[in-house]
Design a protein that fits this description.
Elements (H helix, E strand, L loop, with lengths): L1 E7 L6 H14 L4 E9 L8 H9 L4 E8 L5 H8 L6 H12 L4 E5 L15 H8 L2 E6 L5 H14 L4 E9 L5 H14 L3 E6 L7 H11 L10 H11 L1
Parallel strand pairs: 1-4, 1-5, 2-3, 2-4, 5-6, 6-7
Length: about 240
């Protein structure tokens, strides 16, 4: 059984799409896959959340579980405080992940925002969950200017907390990459202290399931069952520019 903690360098970096892409490849490879979203914020009870996108893109063969939902688009701690709803603690999240892990080949735990976003008033975060589970961390990063600092900070915190960063994935590669984005293909692995395990195109969330699976296969490393080659991608991206 394998558990991966999916964290981002911030909000809106493509974390849910990346989670869905990894899930889609695993399902296509015959694996039993679960996705755990401990805290969904900014979504009302009657609205579809991130897990609905995962199922839409990766297929209904994916088991999903959400532990808390808060209507305000804030950190889980702030959203819980504002709504008066119960907070989360790492123990509850770890138990849910372990429960899913017993019946699945791959369990993906998708955080809210970055690695240190607070779940409760004690400062508990996704980093505590990853440590308690002993799971690898995947960093989903932006492509362009500013991403190196955010990625390096995330990786440094992870390492100091005894976590292992398995790799970094660019969650939304622009159709027309600028100089910073092209340069970051080489520099992001240095900032993360881990390999570049994939690059997914921007707008992938609008794809059909078949198109999504094809893009996931092309954009993710063989480590996930894909065909992504970072050197080949960098060469083609630079040539296209």
């Amino acid at each position: 059984m394998t558990m991966l903690v999916m964290t981002g360098t911030g909000t809106g970096v493509g974390k849910t799409i990346t989670t869905a892409a990894i899930a889609a490849l695993a399902v296509a490879g015959g694996q039993r896959v679960a996705v755990l979203k401990p805290a969904q914020t900014g979504v009302r009870p009657d609205e579809p959340g991130d897990l609905a996108d995962v199922v839409r893109l990766a297929g209904d063969g994916v088991t999903t579980r959400e532990l808390r939902r808060y209507p305000d688009p804030l950190s889980p701690e702030a959203a819980a405080r504002r709504s008066g709803l119960p907070t989360l603690d790492p123990g509850e999240i770890a138990r849910a992940a372990s429960d899913l892990d017993t019946g699945h080949d791959l369990t993906l735990i998708e955080g809210a925002g970055g690695l240190l976003v607070r779940f409760d008033g004690t400062g508990a975060s996704l980093a505590d969950v990853a440590w308690s589970l002993g799971s690898l961390v995947i960093i989903v990063a932006e492509a362009g200017l500013g991403t190196l600092n955010a990625t390096a900070l995330t990786a440094e915190v992870a390492t100091k907390r005894g976590l292992t960063v398995a790799g970094v994935i660019i969650g939304a590669w622009p159709a027309e990459p600028d100089l910073a984005s092209l340069s970051n293909l080489e520099d992001l692995p240095v900032a993360a202290g881990a390999p570049l395990l994939g690059v997914l195109p921007a707008g992938l969330g609008e794809a059909s399931p078949a198109e999504f699976l094809a893009a996931a296969r092309a954009g993710l490393s063989p480590w996930f069952g894909g065909e992504f080659d970072p050197e080949l991608f960098a060469g083609c991206a630079s040539a296209g520019k």
